[in-house]
Amino acid sequence: MSRPRILFIDAYDSFSNNIVSLLTTVLNADVDVLPIDPPHLNPKRAGFQDALREQVRPYHAVVCGPGPGAPDVDKDVGIMKHIWGLEGQDPPPVLGICLGFQSLAVSCGAVVKRLQTGLHGMIREIDHLTAEHDRNIFAGVSTFKATLYHSLHADVGQESVPAIEWQNAKWVSPPLFPDIVPLAWAYEDRGGAVERILMGIRHRTKPFWGLQYHPESICTESAGHRVIMNWFREAMAWNHATGRKTESVSPEVKVTEELESPILADAGPTTCSSSWLQGDGALASFGLDAKYLSKTIDIPLHIEVPDVVEILQDGGNEFIVLDSASAKLKRTGLDVRGRYSIIALDVDEALKLEYRTGRGYVTVRGPSASPAAQGSVKQVKLNQGQTIWQFLTDFWTERQIRSHGTPDPFIGGFMGYTTYELGLEGINVKLHEERHHDRADLCFAWVTRSIVIDHIEGSLRIQTLSSREPEGRQWLETTANKLARSPIWSNAIPANFGKAHQSSQLTPPHTPRARHTVPEIRAPDASEYESKVRLCQDFIAAGDSYELCLTDQTLITQPRSRSEGTLQSQGKHTSPSSWQLYRSLRTRQPAPFGSYIRLGGATLVSSSPERFLTFDSAGLCSMRPMKGTVRKSPLISTLEAAEKALHIPKEEAENLMIVDLVRHDLHSVCGPGNVDVPHLLKVEEYASVFTMISVVEGRLPPRLTGLDVLAASLPPGSMTGAPKKRSCEILQGLEGPRGRERSLYSGVVGYMDAAGRGDWSVTIRSLFRWDDETTSSINPSTLDATTGAGEIETWRIGAGGAVTALSTPEGETDEMFTKLKGPVGVFEEA
Ligand SMILES: C=C(O[C@@H]1C=C(C(=O)O)C=C[C@H]1O)C(=O)O
Ligand SMILES: NC(=O)CC[C@H](N)C(=O)O
After folding, report:
1. Of 45, 217, 399, 787, which is most buried by a Cβ count within 10 Å?
2. Which fold has domain 5-242?
3. Would you state the torsion angle of the CA atoms of residues 212, 217, 219, 225, taken in this order, to the nearest 10 degrees?
4. Cα(222)–Cα(135) distance, rounded to whole angstroms?
5. How far is the C-alpha of 139 from the C-alpha of 23, rounded, in Å?
6. Is 81 close to ligand 1, i.e. is its CB under 6 Å away?
7. Domain Glutamine amidotransferase, which positions (predicted)?
8. Domain spans of the chain?
């Protein structure tokens, strides 16, 4: 028999692809996905019912999925609501899950109410009917626990049943709702009183079933998969008994995900991407036909990443340093996260690709191209329907290097950043306001000269992608000599030259008093932040989100340092340059994903502990969401104590939600059955906090690369909450003042090399500024006499955390300030 076909109706949930994977693997079925609001099925148009019937006819069964919102709100359920009303001889067999379940219950007359407290990421035992009769999909299923993600539940009068009657009453259709046959329940202890929550139903006469819990969650026990098998067996039995005919899907009806084409706003550029990439202009041919050359030397123990940068800098303007600053602390070799540091060299000479959301073109900046240097900047139009990621893939494919013979993770290739707003474009979340700047949301340099430091081996590899071998080799020698001959290398100058001293005692952010307002720190107002946490919880209670990663920004203004643009340290009384801030942050807050980046008008100084995504050239990808953080304190100073503090329902639920979300993101590119969770809820130690991480792995099909994973998974789920799209929309409204963007914060930083390997971190615990936010000083009192530069620069630091139904406003505010402390401290130190 050919494989059965199932239509999955997606209510924009962040777990949908996990359900598709479950159905595909457990039922050996082909699953097509249709959104709740497909343009060709508008309930307001004449003939809608017929069109919907035609849509579902080819399928053996339909699944109505989970999602944000409420079942009685039309826009939240879209066509789902009309599935239950499909009259005629042969309604299709349908399974509703969570929102889909609630929609079925509402169609049978039930009222949907708010739970006393939402149950998101909570794992509960299911009390189900095991008897073998009457289309009971729980028949023969052993006891199991399942994950819940809901704020609402179906009220069928269960609270009015006296406790002594419950055992007999619970499997009987409630008198007021004769079409609902209860099949499963869960019970929530609410301080002595028990809340009865309907977990599974079937329709009395129609082939409709529903589950309130999430069968696809990583924490729903596999005994629960039997329910899905039973359901499908009942569905097929229904089709057979009623003679319901399914027809094979003709190519016209087959549903595929609709790709939105980018908005082609500016008519400006005329060169389109395909002709540019194949052209032979100086920019288009940059980096083609290159060969990998390298030279390895030992690195003295006292030399640190910034020392290497200082020795080799040649008065450049742009820098990319990915610094495993925590590696030295862990030279045991156990902590593989921080093994390598990568330094791009001669970034000014590299080709840069920049993209801004909503624009239909890519800006290509040639070597040493200042925006003013005409001729070396080109705007290349994206083809109709082509995304920035497809453009980057085409560019990369032309420069791919298959054999290089180095075990190191990077040989040269793309390095750069993306903003949070780039991610929003990818999930079709519109920005509230017009943007009053011209900054790029993605800036990737094609790096051909670089250094990889292996902190475990104590080695340094100088490498180039060069089309002229003798010249390339010459450069390797010159660079090696430059390092070896430097006085710092031979320890003639102490290696802590120019470094800020380590401060272990962190002080809370504050606004310095008026006399000498340098720098001026404007941290979020605690009570305002607390009210935003409460607003988040209102959205959660209403069913609009399961978890919201609320954040806020701290602004620091200071006179622009006179030595900005060089890597010099300077006198005591001037404001610190970005380089000094970086030196200071990496000492105060050493992290596995530190970075110093000056690229495309942005400066980023980061001490991120969070890996977003790593992948190899064979297509194995791994994501490492972090969620659940406690501050180090005398009470919580050991891993053991932190485990106690973090292995509690609230923290575990936060992490689990993001794990399921990341599985969904990875499933979308890796496909059903190709995603696993090798580590769940593991507590790790960082400089000033303990955090819980999980690892989610996927295997990419051969034709896809890590760029496809980035395209499918931004913005990082740990920075949004779930479901991603609705949560981001809510956060946009809350995180004002209006028009404020998260920008680099919540974006990602990393690389994808010419061999196809990549490593990306989430931009958190960091500070950034944009060149265009430097203003002339209007108030002379804010000027430090020794800078005299007359310019004020603005640094931004984002911080926040996940809000759930179980959060407390004070607890979340404290967590936000804890995360802020590290990065803000570099200014206080100055
Ligand atoms: C939002 C931040 O961190 C995120 C939120 C975390 C949490 O809620 O525990 C942990 C790591 C990050 O994914 C931040 O650092 O500002
Ligand atoms: N996961 C879901 O489908 C949730 C359904 C609904 N939004 C609720 O919160 O109850």
Report:
1. 217
2. Rossmann fold (3.40.50)
3. 80
4. 21
5. 19
6. no
7. 8-232
8. 5-242, 271-500+510-619+705-829
Measured CA to CA, the distance from residue 386 to residue 557 in angstroms comes to 40
Mutate to test the pocket of ligand 2, among 18, 114, 149, 537 (most ligand atoms within 8 A of CB): 149
In three-state secondary structure terms, 7 is: strand
| 610, 764 contact by CB (below 8 A) | yes
Fill in the amino acid letter for 251. P
Helix crossing, 305-312 with 469-485: angle to 10°?
120
What residues are paired with 560 via a beta bridge?
Answer: none
d(CA 213, ligand 2 centre) in Å:
10
Which segments of the chain have a pLDDT < 70?
A: 1, 88-89, 247-268, 270, 280, 328-337, 369-375, 492-517, 565, 568-573, 737-739, 777-789, 830
552 lines ligand 1 (CB under 6 A): no
- Look at ligand 1, atom 5, and give the residue with the nearest C-alpha: 801
ipTM for the complex?
0.98
Distance CA 71, CA 273 (A): 44
E strands present in 494-623: 520-522, 547-559, 593-599, 602-608, 611-615, 620-623
How far, in Å, CA of 500 to CA of 498, rounded? Answer: 7
Sequence-ordered list of residues with C-beta below 8 angstroms from that of 141, at least 6 positions apart, any chain:
128, 130, 223, 224, 226, 227, 230
Copy the structure tokens of residue 23. 């159905």
Selection from 357, 354, 390 nearest residue 707 by Cα: 390
511-532 residue pLDDT tens: 343 334 578 999 999 999 999 9
Phi and psi at 425, nearest 5°, equal: -60, -40
Nearest bound ligand to the CA of residue 544: 2
Tell me whether the omega of the peptide bond preceding residue 71 falls within 30 degrees of 0, making it cis: no
- CA–CA dist 171, 181 (Å, integer): 7
Dist CA 446 CA 353 (whole Å): 8
From the list 676, 653, 607, 297, the residue with the least C-alpha distance to 452 is 297
Q: Ligand 2: does its nearest atom lie under 6 Å from the Cβ of 121?
A: no
Q: Rounded to an integer, what is the distance from CA 143 to the centroid of its chain? A: 34
What radius of gyration, in Å, describes the C-alpha atoms of the chain?
A: 29
Distance between CA 85 and CA 76 in Å, rounded?
17
The matching CATH number, chosen from 1.20.1250.20, 3.60.120.10, 3.40.50.670, 1.10.10.10, for 271-500+510-619+705-829 is: 3.60.120.10
CB 613 within 8 A of CB 710: yes
- Which residues lie closer than 8 Å to 425 by C-beta, 6 or more apart? 357, 358, 441
Parallel, antiparallel or unpaired: strands 611-615 and 620-623: antiparallel
Which helix (H) or strand (E) segment holds residue 269: the answer is none
Backbone angles phi, psi at 599, to 5 degrees: -160, 135
211 CA distance to ligand 2 centroid (A)? 11
Q: CA-to-CA distance for 625 and 724, rounded, in angstroms?
A: 14
| Ligand 2 contacts CB of residue 615 (under 6 A) | no
Structure tokens at 198: 């309907």
pLDDT per residue as tens digits for the range 435-464: 889 999 999 999 999 999 999 889 999 999
Q: How far apart are CA 200 and CA 129, in angstroms?
A: 9
Query: What number of CA atoms fall less than 13 Å from residue 513's CA on the CB side?
Result: 1
Pairwise CA distance, residues 780 & 791, whole Å? 10
Alpha-carbon distance of 142 to 144, in angstroms, equals 6
Structure tokens at 568: 């010099």
pLDDT per residue as tens digits for the range 464-506: 999 999 999 999 999 999 999 999 998 866 555 444 333 333 3
- Which residues share a beta bridge with 95? 63, 209
